[in-house]
């Protein structure tokens, strides 16, 4: 504080002048400390990019497989995560594989800190693996090569755990999400449950007034600009351009908020800021063929969600081939992958619930209310809550019957009956109709026509560029000019300029050390500090308004230009009754497949004997409502222990899932078939099975009235009145 003097109250009765002196000194000190953090950030950047395998993982790893050794080499690697001290991995638990996104940044964000996807899985006792990548691609590598490499990585993980019958759980963040979905569609037997976090799969989808990034392809005239950027890089696309696109989405945060947060909290914020910047500034590059495929086939073409992608050997990439449960985690606060883009593919591929059942597909989605794109897989609070619950309940998700479910993570204290769960949250699953996704996806046929027009224009412009301009660009670009263009990219330059390589920064470290030794911070009650915060809020609000005006202009321009009838006529979209978005789910061949699948399920209604009857009865009692939660899986685990100890866990799950499916397909016939399934079992045997059923369903909590009624129904099926007094021979008889 400013030294007191007896005359201060006379000349400064309000104390405003003294607060100004304190504030001025604090601000000057913060400026030096802020500049020193910028210097440390620059040095950190140079050290990071100098590494052969730069990543930001917070765990030690062991290289298991190098993608450069595969028949189609890629710059991806499979690594085993070494558990830290004090963390015990249980050999019998299914392995977890986390695949990091390659969207301009380096690898490691999925295991950035202890409260992360990898950290949560390790704490739960799962062996963990990480799929990362090197900064530079192998020349000529394709997206398909990367997908095949990830399949080989999963096969290697499975081989390392021969005693585990369950397939690995795979987590894909952002770009890695659609990549592992492609892999799972090609090799479904390699995958256990799949969690895709913040992953776009339906690229035309979006709500008007939001998600302005989906208009980018149309605003630049298609993918010719991608080819141009790759040619300037001599066949390499600089990922810094992708990062710059992300930053442009929120100019207030990029230009002001992030830096002011550091400046205003310089005494406590530096470490968190530097840790994040180590990942954010670790830009990587992509092969030209990779990024062109991504833009043409996915972002502009939207061919993944419509099963129109074909591999070089003629295989169709159809997401309906995925046999593993899929958990889609997205957020309303994510403007890079909003919920419509994360979930629209479900509506594109499946016409109704019968389609999901016929394809034996379980899809669970969770929509966070507020967190941003990075928060979905970086936020500690999200990891401790949502990711922990997903990890702990993946076995339950693995046995959910085919269908669409919305999942919610509830505070355990808010529930009337907590049941057997001993953690702070309870995961609940509520059945949803496919049509209910329309409230999330907001499909608009007129917008689909606009994006279809963009796709056509993109092909035309790309052809013109490749014919007339590309030969000229490639003739003048050399490897050295490409390297210099990446080196002097504005995003990279802002790190280098503040490093110790710049002579202007000499003396900053010494000055910052002196300031730290004699620091004089002011508290939040200082009125000048409060005025500073008010000014910061005004700047942030102004930049937000500018962003909103920009986004509104972009959307209106896109809608006007690509909504013109003349342009759509030139794009071959003149017929108003023509369907511009291909929906494979309504093809006649698929309809026949659905009908055949339903017929097969109905034929199995009276097959399976006593074991099928017991499992069907338990599922009927516990799952008769429209929603379920993790407590029911704890009951099903008890069934495995008490009734089916001879089955492996994977066999038991298949048995449970089949009975779920039969009940879901024709519930009335499935329950009516119980007497037929019990045929041959004597009264004593039925009484014993019924006693076990009652023990399982009543063990964890008191049954509500609806489940009590279903239990009475099961009792009547197991012990009809005519058998309750009949003499029975000793011993159990099973069908």
TrEMBL record:
Pfam family, one: DUF3141
InterPro entries: AB_hydrolase_fold, DUF3141, PHA/PHB_synthase
Protein name: 3-hydroxyalkanoate synthetase
Species per Swiss-Prot/TrEMBL record: Terasakiispira papahanaumokuakeensis
Taxonomic lineage of the native organism: Bacteria, Pseudomonadati, Pseudomonadota, Gammaproteobacteria, Oceanospirillales
């Amino acid at each position: 504080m400013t030294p007191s003097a007896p005359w201060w109250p006379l000349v400064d009765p309000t104390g405003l002048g003294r607060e100004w002196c304190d504030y001025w000194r604090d601000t000057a000190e913060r400026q030096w400390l802020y500049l020193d953090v910028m210097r440390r950030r620059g040095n950190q950047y140079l050290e990071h990019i100098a590494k052969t395998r730069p990543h930001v993982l917070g765990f030690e790893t062991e290289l298991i497989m190098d993608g450069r050794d595969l028949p189609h080499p890629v710059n991806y690697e499979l690594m085993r995560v070494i558990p830290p001290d004090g963390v015990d991995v249980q050999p019998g638990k299914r392995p977890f594989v986390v695949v990091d996104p390659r969207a301009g940044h380096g690898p490691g964000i999925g295991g950035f800190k202890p409260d992360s996807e990898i950290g949560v899985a390790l704490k739960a006792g799962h062996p963990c693996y990480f799929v990362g990548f090197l900064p530079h691609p192998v020349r000529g590598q394709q997206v398909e090569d990367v997908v095949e490499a990830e399949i080989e990585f999963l096969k290697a993980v499975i081989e390392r755990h021969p005693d585990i019958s369950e397939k690995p759980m795979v987590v894909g963040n952002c770009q890695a999400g659609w990549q592992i979905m492609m892999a799972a569609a090609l090799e479904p037997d390699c995958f256990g449950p799949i969690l895709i976090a913040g992953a776009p799969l339906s690229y035309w989808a979006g709500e008007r007034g939001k998600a302005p990034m989906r208009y980018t392809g149309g605003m630049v005239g298609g993918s010719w600009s991608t080819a141009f950027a790759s040619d300037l890089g001599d066949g390499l696309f600089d990922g810094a351009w992708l990062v710059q696109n992300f930053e442009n989405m929120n100019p207030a945060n990029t230009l002001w908020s992030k830096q002011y947060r550091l400046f205003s909290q310089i005494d406590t914020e530096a470490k968190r800021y530097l840790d994040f910047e180590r990942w954010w500034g670790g830009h990587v590059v992509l092969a030209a063929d990779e990024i062109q495929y991504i833009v043409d086939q996915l972002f502009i073409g939207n061919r993944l969600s419509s099963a129109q992608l074909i591999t070089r050997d003629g295989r169709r990439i159809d997401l309906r081939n995925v046999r593993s449960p899929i958990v889609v985690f997205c957020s309303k606060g994510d403007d890079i992958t909003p919920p419509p883009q994360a979930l629209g593919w479900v509506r594109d591929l499946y016409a109704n619930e019968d389609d999901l059942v016929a394809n034996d597909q379980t899809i669970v989605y969770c929509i966070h209310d507020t967190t941003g794109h990075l928060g979905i897989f970086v936020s500690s609070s999200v990891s401790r809550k949502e990711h922990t619950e997903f990890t702990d309940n993946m076995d339950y998700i693995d046995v959910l019957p085919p269908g669409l479910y919305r999942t919610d993570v509830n505070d355990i204290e808010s529930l009337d009956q907590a049941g057997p769960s001993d953690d702070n949250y309870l995961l609940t699953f509520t059945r949803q109709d496919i049509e209910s996704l329309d409230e999330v996806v907001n499909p608009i046929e007129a917008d689909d026509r606009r994006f279809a027009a963009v796709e056509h224009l993109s092909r035309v412009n790309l052809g013109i560029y490749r014919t007339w301009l590309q030969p000229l660009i490639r003739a003048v670009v050399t490897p050295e000019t490409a390297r210099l263009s990446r080196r002097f990219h504005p995003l990279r330059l802002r790190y280098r300029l503040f490093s110790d390589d710049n002579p202007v920064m000499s003396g900053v470290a010494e000055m910052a050390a002196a300031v730290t030794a004699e620091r004089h911070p002011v508290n939040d009650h200082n009125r000048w500090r409060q005025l500073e915060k008010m000014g910061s809020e005004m700047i942030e609000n102004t930049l937000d308004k500018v962003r909103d005006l920009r986004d509104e202009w972009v959307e209106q321009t896109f809608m006007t230009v690509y909504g013109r009838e003349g342009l759509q006529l030139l794009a071959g979209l003149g017929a108003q009754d023509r369907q511009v978005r291909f929906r494979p789910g309504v093809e006649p061949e698929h309809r026949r497949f659905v009908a055949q699948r339903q017929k097969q399920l109905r034929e199995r209604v009276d097959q399976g004997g006593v074991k099928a009857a017991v499992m069907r009865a338990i599922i009927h009692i516990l799952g008769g409502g429209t929603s379920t939660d993790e407590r029911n899986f704890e009951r099903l685990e008890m069934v495995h222990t008490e009734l089916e100890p001879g089955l492996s866990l994977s066999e038991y799950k298949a048995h449970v899932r089949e009975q779920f499916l039969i009940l879901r397909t024709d519930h009335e016939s499935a329950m009516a078939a119980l007497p037929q399934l019990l045929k041959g079992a004597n009264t004593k045997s039925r009484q014993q099975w019924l006693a076990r059923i009652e023990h399982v369903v009543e063990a964890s909590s008191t049954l509500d009235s609806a489940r009590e009624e279903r239990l009475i129904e099961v009792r009547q099926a197991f012990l009809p009145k005519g058998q309750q007094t009949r003499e029975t021979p000793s011993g159990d008889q099973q069908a």
